[in-house]
Design goal:
By secondary structure, the protein is an all-alpha fold. The chain is built from 4 helices and no strands. Helix 1 crosses helix 4.
């Protein structure tokens, strides 16, 4: 029983740096200029994005494509400008989208 508690504690501890890294990647990539974790700024909150797309298949790839190409209509008339790899790398973008879909915790 003690071993399983230790394993659970280690797993929980290991997840914290990933969340912090993903938020840092979102900030570095410029995402936080228009979005916030839990409130609408110019664009929807990350939590609203996660809620809207919860349980949709292949949504990670669709959101990555949306970030790359930009567009409007998903959350209202405010357009999202395209964000190329010069602004946020493919690896960072994937990590940020995964973090958003997990609720941006």
């Amino acid at each position: 029983m003690k071993k399983s508690l230790l394993v659970a504690s280690l797993l929980a501890f290991a997840m914290v740096p990933c969340a912090q890294a993903s938020e840092a990647q979102a900030t570095k990539g410029g995402c936080m200029a228009c979005h916030a974790k839990d409130k609408k700024v110019l664009g929807p909150s990350f939590r609203d994005i996660a809620a809207k797309y919860k349980d949709q298949k292949d949504i990670e790839a669709k959101l990555i494509d949306k970030v790359r190409k930009g567009g409007s209509g998903s959350f209202g008339p405010m357009p999202m400008s395209p964000n190329g790899p010069d602004k946020i790398s493919d690896d960072d973008l994937k990590a940020v989208v995964e973090w958003i879909l997990k609720g941006a915790a």
